[in-house]
Amino acid sequence: AAASAGLSQRFVLRFRSLEHFRLPHLPSFKDFELSSASAQAPVEGRVVLDAAKASFADAMALLERISSAKAPEDDEGRTVLEESKTLTGVVAANALAVEELTRMLLEGTTRHVAAAPTLHPHFVSVEVQRPKTPAK
């Protein structure tokens, strides 16, 4: 119990700097515990995929709001608008990968998965690779 209390305090101290940013949701120690528990249970992979699906849907909604905003007149605004278009591609690719992984989990199949910063220099896009078909 004392170890858990110490972890909670360390979590708060570690992520206190995030309070300076306008985030839609600040991570809490409870979020960390739930995430950790679901990640340690491979049988419950569906929980992680459902959480990822919801997260990507939220991100897509926010990016759509940004892209539908009035055309900015300053360089900084134009940069944000262009960046949102690039991020939309990353989010869409990752949402598709989550759908494919969910389908694979339900079917009990496996495939190779690759993650690389192909659409954005800082964010990775996950690609579920198609099975190779034999040459005819």
Can you give a write-up of this model?
The protein is mainly alpha-helical. The protein is built from four helices and two strands, in the order ααααββ. A two-stranded antiparallel sheet has the order 1-2. Helix 3 (45-67) packs antiparallel against helix 4 (75-107). The termini are far apart. The mean pLDDT is 80.
Total beta strands: 2
Query: Biggest sheet, in brief?
Result: 2 strands, antiparallel
Shape: flat
On the 0 to 100 scale, the average pLDDT is: 80
Strand order of the largest sheet: 1-2
Count of alpha/pi helices: 4
Estimate the helix proportion, in percent. Answer: 55-70%
Structural class: mainly alpha
Q: How widely separated are the two ends?
A: 63 Å
- What is the H/E string? HHHHEE
Portion in strands: 5-15%
Low-confidence stretches: none
- Report the oligomer: single chain
Radius of gyration: 19 Å
